Structure formats: structure tokens, C-alpha cells
Amino acid sequence: DGVVPQLQTRLLGVMRAVVTDSVLEQLLPLLSSHVDELKTQSLPEAGSTEDMLIHTLFRTCYAPSMAPQLANAKQAWPAFLEFLSGANGVPETWGSVERAQAYVQQLSFEQLAQGFTDGLGSKAVAQITSCLIRVAVRGNAYVMAGGVSLRDLFNRVQLDAVTAADEISAIAGRLGDDENKSKKARAASEPSELPELATLLEYVQNSSVGTDTALVPALVSLLSVFVGADAGRHGTQAYVMQLVLGMLTRVFEAATAAHIVVPESVVRVDTIVQAIRTSSSPQTHNQTLLLLAAVAAQHPDVVLHHVMAIFTFMGANVLRQDDEYSFHVIQQTLERVIPPLVQHGGSRAEQIAQAGPVLRVFVDTLTHIPRHRRMALFSTLVRTMGADSYAAAVVELLLEKNVARVLKGGRETDDVLAFTLSLTHELEAAQQLQCVEQVLLDVAALPADAVKNTELAAGIVQYADVARMSGGELRTFRLVALDYAHQLLTSRQFGSKLGALQGAADAQLSGTAQTQLQLIAQLSAQHAQVEAGGLLDTDVAARAWKQTVQLAYAVLDDVNALMRLQLFVSTVVQLLGHDDLKVRRKALALANTRLSEVDARTADADDVLKLLAPVAAVAAAELDTSDERESLACKQAALLCVATAARRFAAARPTQFTDLVAIISGAHSLGATQAAVASAAMVALAVLCDQLGPRLIPMLPTYLPLVLKHLRAATAQLETASADDLALLISAL
After folding, report:
1. Distance, CA of 606 to CA of 598 (rounded, Å)
2. Spatial distance between the Cα atoms of 238 and 578, rounded to a whole number of angstroms
3. How far apart are CA 432 and CA 195, in angstroms?
4. Which of 121, 184, 422, 643 is the most exposed place for a label (fewest CB within 10 A)?
């Protein structure tokens, strides 16, 4: 009638506090006999005398206080692991044996939930964890009403990081051995390690040691096994790979946040990069890139060795994806992997060698990137690389891409140029100016025609692949680059940003003007070179060069229009001392234009007349024999400026211009032996006489003898006079 079980239950309650190893040895057979009886009959009802007896007996034998002794017991510990394992899988029909196993398994669960593992060593905890993982993989044998769930147990049973790493390494070793089997042997059986491994990784990932750096060697070893495996061989392989990659990412991110450095020796970036190449899963690709970004935060130099493999893959795959997560992955990769590349610095040639191929990957993929993501992506790229150093590089590569489309007559030509301008508008005004100036400098450094000499090609330092460009491509590149500069400098967006700076960009504007003058001088010289060499053999080439020079002057006018008058004057004064005589001559032409535009009645006249002294100094300077022709042109241009200024301002400011007569009448101007210079000086003097009138009577002894001297000399040899001599005669008259 249940009297004996009740007595047994009460006795067990009394004995629970004094259970020893010897008592345990006697109680275990009793527990086993009750379990065996359950296998041959129906389960006791919950709360019945028999149910209470088995529960009390189990709790007494496997009390948490006995856990340390139990782990070393030869019979009790294996029995507990057997109880915990339950049925071997989910049977098709539930007999009394399977129900009995599920019943005892639930008792084991309840004991684990009561802190049974707290006093156990790492080895015993690992054994319990393995049992739970197998139960999770096979499916819980028989769910008892109100019982403890596997999720509760996984949250309660905690592996330490070293033991977790050992468990992962053990499974990785078995998988590695399986990979070494013959192909036929591999196909014969589907190993159970993969499902168990997935469960173990999920368990560790959600545990307190999921971000411990001790896991890194085991996870990397496991990743190398998957990288070497046949792609798609196991259905869960891609999922497990993503788990491994995700765990590694979190470990590195947590370590970086805690200022802990994972040893470089355990980081195998080559294996991580190979994971991208061997997988066809977009999720795996994204997770791998995030891991590389996390590794780059700690070991940038290691990642840098594989940077081209990373970005080449991105160009072929991830950049073409149109989803928010892929875009987030790209941004993370750029922000983590690019900075080490930029921080290396070095010369411009070294920067081009390192960063050029990476930038080209993005530019080459431009048309494959979804339109609505292009601007955000390239803005991130420029910002991460550093707009000051690399904005011009991105622009030049985009312009090079545009060249190919122009020559092919592609419809997207305007689209690429419009995108390039829009991208530049994302920068600050000062950065835009710096970008334009660098583009102009690189255009000035272009060869006149296609480079056929390999040594010369090696000396070209450009982001654009100039060495491989044909003559037509070079001409088109110049035109496209100058058109870009012209459109940018005349755009409303740039003008409003520049105006907001209130003069803070004056130095950059001045520098851009100087750069453009140098470019014009270079283009003029190259034009003459190709013309003399007979390279303008087609109407297309001749027309392209003409358009190029016209555009170059248009860009100069754009820069000139952006400069305040004071800035313009200081810039021209600085340019008049430039080493290149061609630049001086172009600066004088700019000065002459501005002198002819300013009204003498405005305050601007005081500023523009500050040009007079340096211009007159050029006119009075001794002829430069190193380039006599260009030096003569400079002196003539300077004297023309004096004449223009006198015509507009001399009547209102007679004193300032009266002093110029002595300068113009000097030995290297009016007294020069070169008829062209003397003739130009007489023209300037004639304007001064016309504007100043009687005020120049005291100066007659200074200039009139020289005029008469030139007049006599010209008339004496009238029959053999050259064009310059005749011009001198007319000027004197």
C-alpha cells in the first residue's frame, strides 16, 4: 500500500545531510533498480509515492554537495551521464523504455538547474556540455510537463574559455581527419560533428566566454578546415562558417574595446581572405569582410598585405549588392582597412602604388554599383582616404573612365562627369580648390603625345594610366579634365561655399591661378612641339589642341573672376617674379585685362594701380639673354600695360604717372637697341603725353633726344628697314 516507499523517502530525507561515498555506493544500486523497473511498466503519476521516492533518491545520490566526489566516481558519474543523455534520438514510437529514459533525463535536468555543475571541474562540465549538445542535436527525447528546458540548462551550465576552445579544437581535429579521407569515404557518411559543432558554437557564443580571446586559435583552426573543405559538401557548412566568422568578429571587437591585443601569431589573415574566395554565400562574404575590418583595427599591417585581394573581391561581388546590410559591411571595411593604407604615407609615387589599385577597383565598378548608393559609397571612400590627399586621385580616375566613354560615344558620358562634379561638391570649398589645383598640376605634367619609350613611361607619376594612353586618349583626357575644372569653378554650389569662407581660401585661389598659368604655358609649349613634329596630322588632333588651349584660358578666367581685386593684384605681383618667362607674360596679359576693366572713379583704382610699379620694373629690366624672344615679349607686354593704365588713370592721377616717364625712357626700354622694345616704349610714352599734356614739358630732355635718335636712325635706312624698324619709325612719328 505504499508504506515502504514512504518510509524510504523519509529515511532519504534524514540521510541527505550525511551522505558519504560509502553510503552513495549502496544507494546507487537502489536507484538503478527503480529505473530498471520503470522500463517495464508505466511511469508513476506526478506526486505519487513512487514518484516522490525516485525524485528523492535521485536528489540524494546526485546532490550538488556531492558533485566533486561524483565526478571521480567510477560508477556514479557514467550513470549520471547516461541518465542525462536520455534516448538515442527521437524514436518513431514511444515505448516504456524510452519513456523511462526521458523521465530520468528530466530528473538530471532538474539537478543541473539546481547548481549541480558549480562544484565540478572543467573536464566534468565539458562532458555534461557534450551530452547536452548531443541531446539538442538529436532532439529532446520526451518533454515532461513543467520540466526544465534545454535553454535553461545552457544558460545555467557554463564552460570556461579554455575548455570551450579545447572542445572546438577537438571537433575541428575530427573534421580535419575526415577531410583527409578519400572522396569515396567522405561521401559514404555524413559526419555528426557539423550539427554538434553548430550547437556548441551557438552555446559558446551566447555564454559569458563568447568574446574571450582564448577562443581565437581554435576558431581560426576550425575556419581553416572549412576553407580547405569541398564547397557545399555539407548543408550546414555555410551556416557554421558564418558562426565562426561572427564569433571571431565579436572577439576582436570586444578585445579592441577593452584594449586587449590578440597575438598576431594566432591571426591567419590568409585563411580569412581564402574564406571569401571559397564561399559563394553573400552572408559569408559580408561576415568575412566585417572580420577583416575588426582584425585591421588591431593588426593593420597584416591586413594590408592582402588589401588588393580584399578589394578586388569587393569589386566583383559586394559592391554590386543593393541592400542596407551589404552597404554597412562595405562602410565598415573601408573605415577599418583603408586607414592603415593611408597612414603609411610616403612619396606621391608610393601613394599611387599603394592606393591607386584600390581606388581603381571602386571606379571600375562604378556602373555596376546601384545608382542610389554610388554617392554615399564614394563619399565614404574619399572621406576615409582623406579628401586633402586623395580626392583628386578619385576624380582623375573617374575622368579617365569618362575618356573611354567619350571616345566610344557612350550615353553615360555626361552621367560620369556629372557624378564626378557631384562628388566634388560634397567636399568643403577649400578641399574642392585643392582638388582642382592637383588635377590641373597633373594635366600640366602630361606628355605632349603618346609615350612610346618604356623608360619615359616609368617616370610618369599619375593615378590615371597615362603610360598606356594613345595620343587621342591623352588629348581627350586634357579636354575632359579642363572641362571638369571649368564646370566646377563656375558652378553655383562652389560659388556659394567659397563666398561663405569670406576670404579664407585666398591663398588657395592664388595658388590655383599660378598653377593654371603654368599649365597654359606648358600647353602652349606642347602645342608648338607637336605642331613642329608634324603630329597634328588630322583635323581632329588640331581641333582638340585648339579646344584645349581655349578651355585652359577659360579656366584661368574662372579663377580670375573668383579672386577679389586685392588678391588678384598680390597674385599677379608674385607671378611677375616667376622663373618661367612664359608665366610672367601670361600674368602681364591678365594685368592688362584687369587694368582695362576698372573704373578710375571707384575705390578699386587704388588697388589696381599697385600693379604699376612691378609692371614698370619688368619694362625697365635688362633683357634676359637665356630666352631673348620670350624676354622681349614680356617687356612689350609690360609696356602695353603701362599704356593701358595711362589711358584710364593718368588724367586723374598725373603725379603717379609722371614718374613713369623716367622709367620708360631708361636704357632698356626707350633706349633699347631692340626696335620692338623701343617701339612699345614710344607707344606708352605717346599715351602719357596725350593724357598728361603740358605736365610732361619738364620731361622733354629725358625722352625727346631718344625719340629723335630712333627717328633719324630709322629714316637713314628706310629702304632696307625691317618690319620692326618701320614700326619704330611710325611710333616715333
Report:
1. 10
2. 66
3. 56
4. 184
Non-local (6+) Cβ contacts of 339 within 8 A are 300, 384
Residue 522 burial (CB count, 10 A): 19
- pLDDT at residue 185 is higher than 70: no
Q: For 716-733, what is the mean pLDDT?
A: 70
CA distance 24 to 75: 10
Cell numbers for 472: 587621342
The pLDDT assigned to 230 comes to 53
- Asked if 79 and 61 touch (Cβ cutoff 8 Å), the reply is no
**Angle, to 10 degrees, between the axis of helix 675-692 and the axis of helix 700-716?**
140
The sign of the dihedral angle between the CA atoms of 226, 230, 236, 242 is positive
CA 58, CA 685: separation in Å to the nearest integer? 123
- From residue 253, alpha-carbon distances to 173, 258, 336 in Å are 27, 9, 12
Picking from 509, 496, 495, 614, the residue whose alpha carbon sits closest to that of residue 560 is: 509
* DSSP string over 429-484: HHHHHHHHHHHHHHHHTS-SS----HHHHHT---SS-GGG--HHHHHHHHHHHHHH
Dist. CA 209–CA 312, nearest whole Å: 35
Cβ neighbourhood burial of 708 (10 Å; 0-12, 13-18, 19+): exposed
* Full DSSP string of 205-256: HTSTTTT-GGGHHHHHHHHHHHHHSPTTSSTTHHHHHHHHHHHHHHHHHHHH
Distance of alpha carbon 248 from alpha carbon 267, whole angstroms: 10
What pLDDT is attached to residue 544?
84
Q: Which of 569, 566, 556, 557 is nearest to 612 (CA)?
A: 569
294 pLDDT exceeds 80?
A: yes
Closest alpha carbon to 118 in 73, 166, 156, 79: 156
Cβ count within 10 A of residue 408: 10
Please give the Cα distance from 122 to 166 (Å, whole number): 11
State residue 678's pLDDT score: 86
The average pLDDT across 211-238 equals 77
pLDDT band at 26 (very low <50, low <70, confident <90, very high): confident
CA distances to 173, 520, 578, 655 from 585, rounded to whole Å, are 79, 11, 10, 27
What would the pLDDT profile of 516-550 be if each residue is shown by its tens digit?
A: 888 888 888 887 777 776 666 667 788 888 888 88
3-state helix, strand, coil in the chain (%, to 5): 75, 0, 25
Residue 546 CA: distances (Å) to CA of 239, 338, 525, 553? 62, 41, 13, 11
Q: At a CB cut-off of 8 Å and minimum separation 6, what does 704 contact? A: none
Q: Which of 194, 196, 276 is nearest to 233 (CA)?
A: 194
Q: Is the dihedral of CA 43, 44, 47, 51 positive or negative?
A: negative
> Tell me: the pLDDT tens digits for 545-575?
888 888 988 988 888 888 888 888 888 888 8
pLDDT tens readout for residues 673-708:
888 888 889 889 989 988 998 988 888 888 888 888
The Cα–Cα gap between 539 and 546 comes to: 10
pLDDT of residue 488: 93
Residues 6+ apart with CB under 8 A from 231: 278, 279, 280
| pLDDT surpassing 80 at residue 485 | yes
